[in-house]
Amino acid sequence: MGRKIHPLGFRLGVNQKHYSYRFAQMEDYPKFLEEDRKIRTSIEKYVEKHVKDSSNYGGIGHIEIQRKTDPIRIEIHTGFPDLLVEEHSLGIDQMKSDIEHMLGLGNRKLRITLNNVTQPYGEPKILAEHVASQLKNRVAFRRTMKRAIELVGRTSNKGIKIQIAGRLNGSEMARVEWAREGRVPLQTIRARISYCYHPAQTIHGVLGIKIWIFRDTELSLSIGNETL
């Protein structure tokens, strides 16, 4: 059953952290959870719509949302430098106003900060979006997986595994194909695994893309007040 556990949830609290931080009453939890989902969806759709140059597009690694008493702070970890340039500040203001209008914040403050990802293709979500774009353009899946592994490299990561499932290359029967380089120890809880699932809508149907990236191993594991 170890293969059925979500890699991130399995390591939550050990070497994985939450992307949403809040302190609220029990009855407010569903509302905040739905608002966080709307914020992430709105940001991803806005970036996908307004970033036209695919050569500079590096995707969004993850979005962190912090809720305090009054302000809502959103940190966007992105791999493209376009939004980090001061000339594109108007686009950030437009995205901010759209989110405020959607949530109906009123007098509450919304702060959006951008963090540049130094190695964009080292993030599974960004790499999965790149693989999906190649599959939509009818590139052979084996060539796509090989190219994705080359983009990641093994400079700061110790292993990567890519899996694509569906009607590959338009075949009548769906199947699962995968490629791996290096080590990806999913059964080790101390291993820092980054994981992402991303669907790709092709002319032959939906392809499911899963990516695991093994970064390193934690030297110590804290349980209570003891360190192993």
TrEMBL record:
Top-level taxon of origin: Eukaryota
CDD domains: KH-II_30S_S3 (cd02412)
Residue intervals of the KH type-2 domain: 47-118
Subcellular location: Plastid, Chloroplast
Keywords: Chloroplast, Plastid, Ribonucleoprotein, Ribosomal protein, RNA-binding, rRNA-binding
A GO biological-process term: translation
A GO cellular component annotation in the UniProt record: chloroplast
GO molecular function, one term: rRNA binding
Pfam families, per the entry: Ribosomal_S3_C
Assembly with partners or alone: Part of the 30S ribosomal subunit.
Family under the similarity heading: Belongs to the universal ribosomal protein uS3 family.
Name of protein: Small ribosomal subunit protein uS3c
Source organism of the structure: Alsophila costularis
Organism lineage string: Eukaryota, Viridiplantae, Streptophyta, Embryophyta, Tracheophyta
